[in-house]
């Protein structure tokens, strides 16, 4: 299992998810993506990126400070 951010809120870099997921899936691993910093700006196509779990925290873009998370899990 590997956990990555889809985009860095600090550096502004964007992870090439499709390339990464192909490498990880080829060895039987799972890919978890934190999409919190990018969610207000970039659409994440879960099918195209082929990620296994996506997490989003609304606090990262001005949501309530209770830290709600939204998950999408592909099976």
Could you explain how this protein is built, in words?
With 75 residues, the protein is of the alpha/beta class. Helices cover 19% and strands 24% of the residues. The chain contains two helices and four strands, in the order E-H-E-H-E-E. It has helices at residues 17-26, 46-49; strands at residues 2-5, 31-34, 53-57, 69-73. The longest helix has 10 residues, at 17-26. It starts with a strand and ends with a strand. The relative contact order is 0.22. The model has no long low-confidence stretch (mean pLDDT 87). InterPro entries: Aminotrans_V_dom, PyrdxlP-dep_Trfase, PyrdxlP-dep_Trfase_major. This is Aminotransferase class-V family protein. Pfam families: Aminotran_5.
Offer a few descriptive terms.
75 residues, alpha/beta, Aspartate Aminotransferase, domain 2, four-stranded mixed sheet, 2 helices, 24% strand, globular, Aminotrans_V_dom
Q: What is the total number of structural domains?
A: 1
Gap between N and C termini, in Å?
15 Å
Biggest β-sheet strands, sense, barrel: 4 strands, mixed
Helical fraction equals 10-25%
Beta strand count: 4
